[in-house]
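Onboarding guide, step 5: your first structure request.
Type a short instruction followed by the sequence, for example:

Predict the 3D structure of this protein.
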Amino acid sequence: MSARESAADYEAAKRAWENAGVSPLWESVVAFNQPPAPQQPLFWQWNTMRPLIDRAIELVSPRDVERRVLMFTDPTLNQSRRATTTKGLNGGLQILLPGQTARPHRHSMDAIRFILEGEGAVTIVDGKECAMAEGDLILTPGGCWHEHVHRGTRPIIWLDGLNSPLHRYLGTADYESGPPGELPATLPDAAFAAPNIIPDAEASQRHSPVFRYTYAAASAALDATPAGRDGSRRVRYINPTNGGPAMALWTISLCNSIPTSRPSRFGPRAMPSP
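The system replies with C-alpha cells like these:
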C-alpha cells in the first residue's frame, strides 16, 4: 500500500470515528502532556482598591445592574471577557450605599460574604434577615433566594466569594431572577445560641441553617483557641447540625496572622478570611 493510499485510509477512518462521536486520543493536543503551571499568587492592596470603589459608586447604581461588584481578576484566566479570580473561585468587592438595595435572585453557586467596612445593611436569605457588620460572615448557599437591603448611614463594602468557575466547569451553573415564590421554612439563629445544644428539627445537611456568623463570636473563639506549632491560631465555620463545613463545597476559616507564621496554602476551594 502506498503512502497516499495509507493516508486516505486513515482520513476515511477518522471521518467514520467522527460520525460515530469518537476521536483518537493520540491526536489530542493536551493528552500525554505535562499539566499547566500552577496559578501564580495575586495580591490586591486595600489602599489601591478603596479609591476604585469610590469611582464605582460614582458611576454605577445597583438600580441599573444586577450587582455592583468589582471582581478580582487573574488576567491569565480572563477568557472571552469572563472575569475569573481562580480556577475554582471568584472573588470581588460589592458595595451598597444607604437606602440602596440589590434585588433578589438565586443561583446554584454557593456564596460567602465577609463584611469589610460599614454596617446597617441586611442580607435576606430565604426570607431570614441577617444583619451585616464588620467582620461578619454571611452565607448564601446555592439555591437560596437572597437580596441585600441597606438601612444604615454609611457605605457598606464586603468581600464576595462564589464557586462560579467550579459550577461552570461541571455544567451546573444556574441562575433565576426574583421575586421569589414560596420560601422554605428556616430555623432561627437563637435555636443554635447555646454551645453543644441544637434543636431536634430537620435541617439541610448540605449547608448550615445559620446564615450569619458574627465576628464577635468568631474572634472570641479564635482568642480562646490554643496556638499551633507555628504560633498561629485558626477556627473553622461549621454546620452546627453535623459538625461539617458550613457549606458542603467550602472550608471557611478565620485565622490570626503573625510574622513568624509559616506560609499558609489556599487551594482553589478556599479563600482566606479578611
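Each response can be followed by summary notes, for example: The domain at 46-179+206-214 is CATH 2.60.120.10 (Jelly Rolls).
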